[in-house]
Specification:
- This protein is an all-alpha fold.
- Among the domains are: about 700-920 and about 1195-1230, no CATH class; about 925-990 and about 1000-1030 and about 1045-1055, no CATH class; about 1090-1190.
- Helices cover about 65% and strands about 0% of the residues.
- The protein is built from 60 helices and no strands.
- This is ARM repeat-containing protein.
Length: about 1250
Amino acid sequence: MDTGTMAPPQPITNGGNAHAQQNGDHSDHGDLSQVLQALQAIYDPASSNDTRRQATEYLEQAKRHPDAPSHGRTLALDRSQPAQLRHYGLTLLEHAIKYGWEDYTPEQGESLRKCVVELAQNVAEEDPVYLRNKIAQLWTEIAKRTWAAEWMDMDEQLVQLWQNTLHHQAVVLYVLETLSEEVFNREDPTAGLRGGDLGRACVDIFTPSAVLTEYLPSRDKGLDVRFGDEGWLKRLCANLEWCLSQDYQNQERIRTCAVKTMNTIRASMSWIIPKAIFAAHVIETVCKALAVPVVEMQLAAVEVLQSVYTRHHLNDDDFVELMTPMLTPGSVSLLRDVYNWTLSDLNVNDLSDQKYTLCKKLAELANNFGLFIEQQPQHVPAGSDLPGVFGLLYDILRNPSLVVSIPVLHCWSKLLRSRIVRDSQVVTQMIGGLLETCCSRLIRYESFPEDSEDSTLLFLNEDIDTLPERHAFLGNYRRFCADVIEVLVRRTPVEAMEHILNQATSMFQTLYSDQPPFQPQNFSKSSPPVLHVDAQVTVIDAALKGYMKWISTQGSDPQEHDRMRNSMEESFERWCRQLLQVRFEDPEISRKVLQLMSTFCTKALADRSAFALTFLEHMLTVKLADNTSFPQYSDAVKDLERICSLEMQKLAMKFPDDFINVYDSLERKINEMIASPDTDDRQRMAFNAFLFIIIHRSTTLDRATQEARMKQLLNQVKDAWHNDELTRSVSTFQAFCGVLGMDRLPEFLSANNFRGVQDWSEQPLPSDGQALQANILERSNHLPLRLTKTLLAASIEKLRDDSTAYETAAVLWADAIPVILPNILQLVSHAQAFNNIESNWSHLPPELQQVIRRVLTDRFWQAGISTESRDDFFARVSGSKSTYEGFASTVRGTVRQIRESSYYILYSLTRFKEYFYRISDLPGPLSQALFSNASALSAHHLSVLLSVSTHLIEGCPAALRAQFLPPMIEGLFRELNQKITTEWEAINRQIAESGENDNLTDEMKNESILRQLTFSSVSLVAVLLDPRNGNAELSQPTQNSTEPPMCDFIFATPSVLEPILLFATSTIRVRDTRSVVTIVRVLRSLISRFRDPSPIRDFFCNDILKNAIISLHEPYFVDCQKELASLIAAIVHLDEDIPRNILLSLPGMGDVHRVDRRLAKLRAANRSDDRLQRSIVLDLLSSVRGVSIHEMGKMERRPIKKKTKFEEQYMSVDQPVQVIRGSSPGLEGVADMFGEAE
């Protein structure tokens, strides 16, 4: 087609009268042929992009022609035209209805409505389905605008259509279903403008007149929109009955009619009067459809039942009335038969998608029935087949597909907490099977080999595409299994624990029966023996929780209770002592067993100090030979040693008075181990912390001796920080590098040609490099960070602020705090400055600066993004220690360790409250140290800084906020605003510039971390500005709840509020839905505080409003539209002039009268009606650039694999980053709507 000579569309000369041209009138063939040419050019694969663009522009221009509606009618009615041309005619009508309706006179509107009715009446069987659906959509669009107002006889017209053919019925079903969805179930802005009127009209025409008369006697009887007494619910059920009486198995049109009928019934179930469901016999009729062996009809039937039984706000009588038909023996038998039918050929390697989907939906439906029994056992109707329901739930639980099983597993975790259910004879007989199933499914399927043929894993891979969702799902599944085990142990502790421990003994005895003996070179954290031990330990942990709950609730016979408890403790101790006799050469298995023994010791055997001493002796003597030839094994051995130290400290916290009795012998043993050359500094400090905890937590040691011994250890900390050499070594950045042995780092990198090596992990490190690497590690260990961290943790961990031990520690540390702070602030400052290329490495040649940047770039693994497994990643990192990459890792890792250790120390010092926060000259230097170089940190490292800053801010006592918080909050949010804004701009630029074949893995990782940083920052804003939070530090239960809210201080301090608001305003524009929704809700909650004229109110009406409008019109933000529109509405109410002037300045908003009408409507509307407010805003802004916001969101959404509500619930994780390559089509110039182009 010659697009260069395409003429603009000409008006059809009928004076705008939609009825001037009759069916078959072929006037103005020039226009029709050009439209057809344009459509053919768009769909022709041989067309160039430029041709398609011109054709699209031509067709869009035609939609705006004054006579487009009549032109559209002509095309749509002319069956001699190609279907695509007729469909384009319908889009002309659609454009007129959506974007020109309010400009039409009543007569023009009526003419357009009659046109659509005529189109519906003229549908024919040979018309493509998409044409019939488009006509029904046009009917719905007009109904949303005029039904129950100008259009009063719509119901009569629908009934007349209904009485014609099946394809006329299809139009009616589409209209009824869409109206139900858009008036009640979706956030449709057009329907929202008339939500009340449309809602009343829908209720009126769907509900049988007898039900309305009896149960809604006070309704508006003057509505006058219904036709006939039946109501659509009865008509739909009668139509379904008719379909079921026909040859539905052989006639597709009958099956389609039945499915569409049930879809329409389903759409009404969320809002129809419950009595109407009962009166129309919906449940019984739909169950007949469920019984037919046609899967698509069965799926539609289950969807109807789900929509009934997931309704909210039903009163007890209504719910019982609706539930009764489904709990009869006949209905339960039907459900079991259908479920068994879905299993008849269930094969993961040859799945029938529809039957498998039906299986999953039946499980979700069964979950609803189980929850009804759990929540309202007293309302279960007489004659209900409860044994049948429980049997069905039991069978579904054991389904090989975990996705089928999980809703019922979740249900069992709740059902078993009900005494009525738990004590029933039927359930009692199932306990063994329930326990067996849950124990067997606690294995970590995500760690199975990728080529595993395990059917459960194959189902899992079939159901869940992404690794993050799979991990989240399996985490939830294991949690529910553990819940069931916990409840069952609490119910029958003796029998259940005996069964579980016997099962564990058998597993440990046969651990390597079908495996070769353990060899260090074959070590793997996901080997079969490790996975089996992990699952068994998880089972026992869950069982112990149930046992501890049983202990805490004495029965009616306390003596019998004590006898059982003592007997079980004897059994536990005997089992634990036997297990401690077994030597495990696999460090991962040894670690898991050690942690399990610690759980027994500190929980179930907390009164048995003799076993605690035995276990302590075991930990002091357990030792596996290290072998650095196998890095993964060596790392696991070191991890085992670390865990031993931590578990020893836990024991010391639990049994301090028992350990103090043997303190001298313990001290001798510990000192021997400290003196051993095989013990490293980290272990030495952990051993000292162990002794410190015993002294500190003992209640029998006299106070003077206690304080003297604690001071002796704490003096080591003070002396280490009060050291002139240390002070000199951290006085400047150069000195800091020198003390770490990195003062000649650039020269080393240059001499060894790091710049010229492409793959650092493949380049061996020369001997001088290995020597430098070892020197850096050794020098960093000389800093007093680990000693301070260790003793601080020993001083505060698991202590309440009102305990004697805490008060003792606070007083003793008070002397050390002023000594520690000067040098640790210097360390923080330099460790952050190390990443600042511009400030500290700018003197180097550009190519060497690039090498430094690469040295400072972390390697990290991201679930769902990284192309290797987590274990493979750690193995690769561990195996590259003696390479260039390993050297770079040592450099950045050392600096990061210094930075994060310093953060931890600062956080720990805040636990001493006034002793820390009352230091008058601390806030300024602390803010300077933390934030002056913060922008040089990566998003990942900045997240750690944000975490410690949050603790520093939230922990500040109310009386000291004015002194301490201003520089902290100002510095933090200044840096967050700059960093997050800059990083999002860079990410967006990378994605826009990327090619189709670019590997964007690193960009995806960076974006994922940036999302988390953004959301964490937004969450802090939400906490700080929440008036319910006195002191926001929820981790401290002893906080004074009478303290004034943090937000009162912030609102009273403009210098603090300003950077928070600037950050919040910038965040409206970041491409992270979760963060935008949160910050918009926070901003909206603040508006009521600024109703009086002020700079802040003007800031809301100008800057915040502009950003909200820009985001509202970008396709990415479609899922934030509700919140953004609500924020805009709230801002418009703040001021008469500023928002109006901004709206009038927008492209496409030049019609002053239209804008003023909408603003007046918005201000007059009920402010508590959020949906109406949003709908007015969306309607007002729909004409910007001539593209509907709502439709734009629909067009830009990417297709995703559809999940059920339950699947979304059980796979809930932050959605994996979606990298969209290239630039996305959008609104040209939206970013510079307000004259702020970049």
